[in-house]
Amino acid sequence: MIMSTRATIAFATSDGSYQATYLHFDGYPEHTGIILCQRYNSIERVSALIAGGDLRSLSSNHGEPEYFPNTLPPRLLQDCAALLVFARNCDANFLYVFEDSHWECLEF
Prior knowledge:
alpha+beta; two-stranded antiparallel sheet; 7 strands; 31% strand
């Protein structure tokens, strides 16, 4: 049986809401956390990543996103409480939020 380390990846918008998506595999900080910090370190890059919808994984080699074939679009969540509910409903082990030009990580 293959286990996955699920995560939610999000960014804060100027009005206090969040755009968020689901990541299925390898969501732990030693993989996804490093890739996000190294490769997705601007709001433009983060926004483009999340705009693709739900992610199967981020490639180990270059951090390229692999989206699900019939992916769901990103979710617009009104506040931090809604973001936490979304992450828990995804059964996320980690929540990554890009805000004020840096990443924060919360472990569940």
